[in-house]
Amino acid sequence: MEPSEPLPERRLLSRGYLRDIGLLVTGTAVAQAIPLAASPILTRLFGAEDFGVVGVFLAISTVLAVVATGRYELAISLPAEDDKAASLAAVAAGCCLMVSGATLLVVAVAGPALARAAGAERLTPWLFLLPVSILAGGSAAIYQLWQNRRRRYGAMAAARVQQAAAVTVGNLGAGLAHAAGGMIPGTVFGQALAAVPMWITGWRDIRQHLVGRGLGSLLTVAHSYRSHLFHLVPSHLIGAIALQAPLLIMSSGYSLATAGMYALAHRVVTMPTLMIANAIGNVYRQEIAAAYQATGRFDGIFRQTLFRTAVLAIVPAAAVFLLAPQLFAVVFGPEWRVAGEYARILAVGGFFQFVLTPLDKGALVVGATRYIFWWNTARLVMLGVLFWAVLALRIDVITALWLLTAIRVVLYVVDAAIGYRFARGINS
After folding, report:
1. What are the residue ranges spanned by the domains of the chain?
2. What pLDDT, in 10s, does the model give residues 360-389?
3. Residue 152 DSSP code
4. Euclidean distance between CA atoms 145 and 148, whole angstroms
5. Which of 160, 273, 364, 428 has the maximum number of C-beta atoms within 10 A of its C-beta?
6. What is the CA radius of gyration of the chain?
């Protein structure tokens, strides 16, 4: 067998691999199409500040959700034994319950201060919904990665569509009822509604593999994968803060209305590309894990995935860059043309994000948790410098967005170069 073209990689680049990617990407695309289709209605039911407030709420919720599971769910695909994988799912669920409870206590004590720090005092009465949002997000993450291990990509796709539909219906209902809190109660209601069937069906499957495994067994598994808790939680927490930092920069450095314009541009341009890229990455992670166990490398899958994502992304990214301002004004209303200007800039970084995000799963598979930590730390430091420039130098929004795009492009290109070394079995 030639080392440059290992047999398992040729198998993994088969039609089955492409079918799995297609199934999950299709489901994710439908899930993204639902809120996008509702956006022209939502922009007429809610103002830019409403989009800014719910964006800040989701930014806080997303950051806390990273801590909630202890990142144990990311290890579900790694063990050979289903019993050990189920134990990891149970450990992740227990961590999520504890963090949600702790969040409730923090909000009760320091909720107003947290809202002021985020530049969104309107958020204060609704911070008590954070634990519900965290529980829903943690449950969805555990479910998705358990089904990913089982290669049930249809179930994963269906769950994403259900979640998107529930959140969209909740937001439309809140807007038509002129509910207090804007889109926050509708969003959390939708998250919780979608999480319940995922929790029930996922746990029914997982608990079959937990028969006879007590607390001591769960603690043993948690200790075996403690690097996820001690290395991945800090690095992914930093990464989540960095990912949400642009919205917080907009709300704290400019205004909630500016944050709302950014939030819509991000929703239309960056979120769909990121979600689809992560869907591809979910299949990629499972397949490279098998290839790495068999041969110690997965560079063939890396190259093929890189080529296909680049081909898939180039035309949509170019269209958004050329036409976004006009399209936003027509689809969402003339007052949202500014969001289209933001979207044009975000499309440049979104192209690199879409193409290269699936490939970052290789570091986790080869156990390069410290590298993940330092990459995320570098991103946070660079965004911190940008935040300082916004506050101290008073740079305008457009300049800030171009600097944000430059940071993203540099980081993703560096990550891809190092990721290819991992794919070739070089882990230094």
Report:
1. 7-423
2. 888 878 878 788 888 888 988 999 999 999
3. -
4. 5
5. 273
6. 21
Q: Residues 133, 189: contact at Cβ < 8 Å?
A: no
What is the Cα–Cα distance from 54 to 205, expressed in whole angstroms? 34
Residue 342, phi-psi category: left (phi > 0), alpha (psi -120 to 50), beta (remainder): alpha
Fill in the amino acid letter for 263.
Answer: A
Contact yes or no for 55/260 (Cβ under 8 A): yes
The H-or-E segment that residue 30 falls in is helix 15-45
Count Cβ atoms below 10 Å from residue 345 Cβ, excluding itself: 21
Within 8 A by CB and 6+ apart from 269, the residues are: 320, 324, 343, 346, 347, 350
Please say whether the beta carbons of 275 and 34 come within 8 A.
no
Q: Identity (one letter) of the amino acid at 229?
A: L
Task: Say whether 119 sits in a helix, a strand or coil.
Answer: coil
Q: Where are the alpha helices (DSSP H) in 208-298?
A: 215-224, 226-227, 233-253, 256-265, 271-295
CB contact set of 110 (below 8 Å; sequence gap of 6+) = none
Give residues with Cβ within 8 angstroms of 307, minimum separation 6: none
Distance CA 423, CA 99 (A): 35
12 pLDDT band (50/70/90 cuts)? very low
DSSP letter at 266 equals I
Residues composing the chain? 428
Kindly report, residue by residue over 36-69, the tens digit of the pLDDT: 889 899 999 998 888 888 888 988 898 888 888 8
- Crossing angle of helices 233-253/48-68, nearest 10°? 160
Cα 57 from Cα 126, distance rounded (Å): 8
As given in the structure block, the two tokens for residue 190 are 């939708």
Cα–Cα distance for residue pair 228/235, rounded to 1 Å: 10
CA separation for the pair 82, 314 (Å, rounded): 39
With H, G, I as helix, E, B as strand and everything else as coil, classify residue 149.
helix
